[in-house]
Amino acid sequence: MSYAVRHLERSPEGDQQGGAAVLLHGVGGDAESWKYQLDFLGQRYRTAAWDMPGYGGSALSGGMSFAGLADALIGLLDHLGLAKVHLVGHSLGGMVAQEAAAAHPGRFISLILSATSPAFGRPDGDFQKQFVASRMKPLDDGRSMTSLAEIMVPEMIGRDPNADGVALALKSMAAVSTETYRAAMQCLVTFDRRGNLPNIAMPTLLIAGENDTNAPAPMMEKMASKIPGAQYVCIPGAGHLANLERPDEFNRIVGDFIGGV
């Protein structure tokens, strides 16, 4: 596979930089969906958010796989001249982060996993087949990604979300191509890094949303217990899109963690 990876970047003014952070979005996201984190973390760290291969301005060729996405991430780090970074992954991006941390642990200072899981199960299992079919059905019925976003985003958010953050989530998901969305769904159900959790040696933070039904808080808390020394935080009232629903709280949690590493 070959990739041309687009990214957005923020850096603090002046020559003093306190490290670097890279942000990985989920199935319905893009680089712009990290707006609040780019603005916040970029005041202290060199911060980059990518368009995952197949999204936005990033090309995808040869299909989508976790190994390929991890390789694309390392290629981006090399392109940016970043030897080690704090890696922040949301949902599918959290799975890519786990894959990259397993394959290239020396490239990451810390790992921050938001609304994600260590596995999806067997790609040929009945649940997985039903999941993919349910996610594909609106597209098979002729709906657009804009229409799909209008259905799915309200189902993912929690109580009293930031209205501008919800609007950004709708915009980002509507911009995903149907081909990329289908490829991401097929890729998602192949993920299983449960066996690597005890091997994660870098400082790790897991962030859950209290009302997240896609990556439930109890599951993420159990996941944290499998990672040596991992920290776990649950954001009250938040759903699956905590970085957009509760940006100030999300930013504070991530900023405090990175600052303490």
What does it look like?
Helix content is 43%, strand content 15%. It has 261 residues and is α/β, with parallel strands linked by helices. It has a single domain (7-260), classed as Rossmann fold (3-Layer(aba) Sandwich), CATH 3.40.50.1820. Strands 1-3-2-4-5-6-7 form a seven-stranded mixed β-sheet, with helices on both faces. α1 crosses α10 (247-260) and α5 runs antiparallel to α6. The longest helix is centred in the N-terminal third of the chain and has 15 residues, at 66-80. The relative contact order is 0.16.
Helix content: 40-55%
Mean pLDDT, all residues = 94
* Gyration radius, rounded: 17 Å
What is the second-level CATH architecture? 3-Layer(aba) Sandwich
For the record, the count of structural domains works out to 1
Spatial strand arrangement across the major sheet: 1-3-2-4-5-6-7
> Strand fraction band?
5-15%
Oligomer, anyone? Answer: single chain
Count of DSSP E strands? Answer: 7
The helix count comes to: 10
Q: Tell me, what is the CATH class?
A: Alpha Beta
Class derived from helix and strand content:
alpha/beta
Name of the CATH homologous superfamily: Alpha/Beta hydrolase fold, catalytic domain
- Which of globular, elongated, flat, extended, rod-shaped describes the shape? globular
Query: Can you tell me the residue ranges where pLDDT is under 50 for at least 5 consecutive residues?
Result: none
CA distance, first residue to last residue: 34 Å
